[in-house]
Design a protein that fits this description.
By secondary structure, the protein is of the alpha/beta class. The protein contains seven helices and four strands, in the order H-E-H-E-H-H-E-H-E-H-H.
C-alpha cells in the first residue's frame, strides 16, 4: 500500500490520476489484483482522491461477470474502461458480451470517460474496426 500511496501523492502534484486494473488469473496466473471488489478495497485503504479503477470488461467478464451492475455500482470510482470480447480477447461482437447493451448502459448511467480498445483483431486490423461503425450508429455523441 505504501507504494500506491506514494505514487498517488506524486501524481496528484502533477494533477494526474493513478489507475489500478484487476487482471484475470486464467490468462495471467499469479497476478495479484484479480477482482473489482479487491481493487475497491485497496482504493479505500489507500484513500487517495486521484486513485481510480481501470475497468477492463474482458478481465471482469472472465473473473466475475455482472458487468453492467458492477460498472453502475462503482461508476464514481472508474477512471477508464477497456473493451475486448470473451472468449478470445477479440473485438466487440465476436464473443459472448452484449456490447450494444453495455455501451447503451454506460450512456444511461452517465459514464463520461474514455473507452479504450485492447483486443486482438480476429481477422486483421481493418476488419477488427468494423464494429465501431455499428456502435457509432447506436449511441449519440457524448458531450
Amino acid at each position: 500500500m505504501a507504494n500506491l500511496k506514494y505514487a498517488a501523492a506524486e501524481l496528484k502534484k502533477a494533477n494526474l490520476k493513478l489507475l489500478i486494473e484487476p487482471i484475470n488469473g486464467y490468462d495471467i496466473p499469479g497476478f495479484f489484483l484479480n477482482r473489482t471488489a479487491q481493487a475497491i478495497a485497496i482504493m479505500d485503504e489507500v484513500s487517495a482522491d486521484n486513485l481510480f479503477l481501470q475497468y477492463d470488461v474482458y478481465h471482469a467478464q472472465r473473473t466475475e461477470g455482472e458487468l453492467a451492475a458492477t460498472m453502475e455500482k462503482h461508476l464514481a470510482r472508474i477512471g477508464h474502461i477497456q473493451v475486448a470480447d470473451n472468449p478470445g480477447r477479440n473485438e466487440p461482437g465476436t464473443g459472448e458480451i452484449n456490447y450494444a447493451f453495455l455501451f447503451g448502459h454506460l450512456e444511461r448511467i452517465g459514464y463520461r470517460g474514455h473507452v479504450g480498445c485492447e483486443y486482438k483483431p480476429a481477422k486483421g486490423t481493418e476488419a477488427g474496426l468494423a464494429w465501431l461503425e455499428q456502435a457509432r450508429r447506436q449511441l449519440r455523441p457524448v458531450r
